[in-house]
Design goal:
Multidrug-efflux Transporter Regulator, Chain: A, Domain 2; two-stranded antiparallel sheet; about 120 residues
């Protein structure tokens, strides 16, 4: 299950807007057919598709692939466990953002209330 070559250092991600599946395969040390499979298993991994169904990954997609690779190959998660972990992290980020928005709105409403009381 664990790839013996998974411990080697991954190359830095170049400053490009789009990456082909071959480039992502090299950057993340994962075969292209594995990337295509992960797209079906992880809804958050959705590269843009252009002419001829060619995949074009953006930087955030490459980072997501590296995170999935780490969960599966280095931390020993199953695919369903990795999916749950990623969804949980996404849910926590959304909850934190929601709390921040509520605090901001509350502060603005309190400021308006102060102005109305004058």
């Amino acid at each position: 299950m664990l790839d013996p070559g998974s411990n080697r250092e991954l190359p830095p991600i170049p400053a490009k807007r789009y990456f082909t599946i071959g480039e992502v395969s090299e950057l993340c040390d994962v075969k292209p057919h594995v990337l295509r499979y992960w797209e079906t298993e992880f809804p958050s991994l959705e590269p843009a598709k252009r002419r001829g169904n060619r995949r074009y990954y953006q930087r955030h997609d490459v980072l997501m692939v590296r995170q999935i690779r780490s969960l599966l190959y280095e931390q020993g998660y199953t695919i369903s466990g990795a999916r749950q972990r990623l969804e949980g992290e996404q849910g926590r980020q959304e909850a934190a953002l929601s709390q921040q928005i509520v605090r901001q709105v509350r502060m603005e409403l309190e400021d308006i209330l102060q102005l109305l009381r004058r």
